[in-house]
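Worked example

This section walks through a single chain of length 423. The input is the sequence exactly as stored; nothing has been trimmed or padded.
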Amino acid sequence: MVNPWLALTAGADPVARSRAVRGAHAEFVARPGRDVSPRVRAVVADSWRRSAAVLPGAEFTAPVELADAELDGYRRAHPLARALPLFRELLGSIADDGAHLLAVCDAAGRLLWVEGHAGMRGRAEHMNFVPGARWDERHAGTNAPGTALALDHAVQIFATEHYNRLAQRWTCAAAPVHDPFTGRLLGAVDITGGDHLAGPHSLALVQATARAAEAQLAAEPPVPPAVRTLTALGRDEAVLAADGRRLRLGRRHSEIVLLLAGHPDGLTGDQLATALYGERSLPPVTLRAELSRLRRLAGGLLASRPYRLAVPVETDATAVERLLAEGEVREAVRAYAGPLLPSSEAPGVCRMRRLLEDRLRRAVLGSGDAGALQLWVDAPWGEDDLEVWERLLVVLPRGAAHRGRVAARTGELRATFAQPARG
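Given that input, the structure is written out below as tokens.
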């Protein structure tokens, strides 16, 4: 029985195969609505269809979303960082031979590490196969790490099977890696090189490496730090929890803890005062009195010079941001309990509130996920959001049971917004 995840059958001519698939690719991208030639593997044909539905063309560079300090911080905190030494041990010698690259991506398809000979890395840079770039199918088309994430299965993508013409000089094999405790998809491990990777050995190698990484993660569970949590979404008064105790904070103390949680390196007195009071002229003793009362309430929480949190505080807003960074848009909407400290007028809090809501809403609109869109319009902050209702109407299948209700609500909102304002 032919393995559908392998690119070439035993004895196949890679040159002839590449030529045949290139012709099928040219036919398909010329008319994306047509059927894909039977010369193309079903797993690749399905991926081409998904790619054509969201990408503007068949030749482009993948976007780079993370760079410099932001990328370094994200990589250090990612669970796959603990498996990186194992990836290097099992695949590093291959990546150093001048003919291959080792790559690791997160569950959203962001490349975290791309390693190998400098010459190979330089060639890969021409198509943005670099750390921080987004290589899921929605942003890079058919490719081994992106398709492995889309199907949650190890896969090999050979040369002209790539949807993006810029990637068709390469062959790659990738396997997904899961959290051994929760089963959650963490990302994928990939090897990329030339046509010689199209044999069964490369697919078996990345599958074995992924299983070894999961076994290592299971044997070395992370030790959770002593973190306090702050619940501030949809609440005017935040709740600080630690060691089984819950402390309800007053509004000003809620703002202070939230602002300091968002600035782990600390804020000077002037910076904190501006974030809390804006340009209002208040004596320094006002802020010092608030901080003194907060110290008495939550002993050991605050440090000075600069003002900062002495222990880690995880906010529910940060949890939403993390889910968005991982591409889990629907879960992020579920975790979003409402605007951040909605009654606060502190400038720093208003900015954090606006940035989070704007980023979440953009992610919902851009996801094309009917479930995420429905969750948004079902919430009080989304029930009158015409743009999201319109997007939901577009992505809902024709036969969806509640499509009529969505169409009716969309029509009501269009009529409402079309009415001239009364003076």
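What to look for: The two ends are 74 Å apart (CA to CA).
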